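Recall the central idea of this unit: under ordinary conditions, the amino acid sequence of a chain determines the structure it adopts. In this exercise we apply that idea directly, starting from the sequence alone.
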Amino acid sequence: MIGAALALYLIAGSPGLSGKAPLVEIQSVDTLRSQFNQDAGKIRLILFLSPTSPVCLAGTRWLQLDILGQQPTDSLRVYAVWMPMLPGDSRDSWDGGYLSDYRVLHYWDEGRLTGTWFAQEVDGLEGVSWNTYYLFEPHASWESVPSPPQDSGGTIRDRAMILRAHLLYLIWELTGNPT
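Accordingly, the structure predicted from this sequence is:
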């Protein structure tokens, strides 16, 4: 019985037996940078999210159903960075059921380090980047700053059709599969 549950977990990409996907603590921007560079050769999508924002959660539902659910390619990696942006946001308020696909890595950034860093170093803005995404092609690298994104913006849900078009193009370019 346990073997069947494990097989279902691996095939379905569910968040696991506890109901929640693992949530990695961000200690510095290097936590995200290291994983990004480790996944070179894949399409990479970085999301900055609030765990209680209805707008952020609508974007994640759309991404799970309309992109991850429809595009089975292993050539895609998603980094969901959850941060306390609204009153009541906390690690405990994060629901690991959102973005339960096996290609999604979840991070908790209590100090908003990565969101602040992206706003300043990538976008040239003050503040914190949140309810936003950054889409990178497979050949992108991240030394002092990441290669320019193929596409970026927010809100995720408002830019859904643009993000979809860029993602499908990158998937087609990488795999040759016009989905």
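Confidence is low (pLDDT under 50) at residues 1-18.
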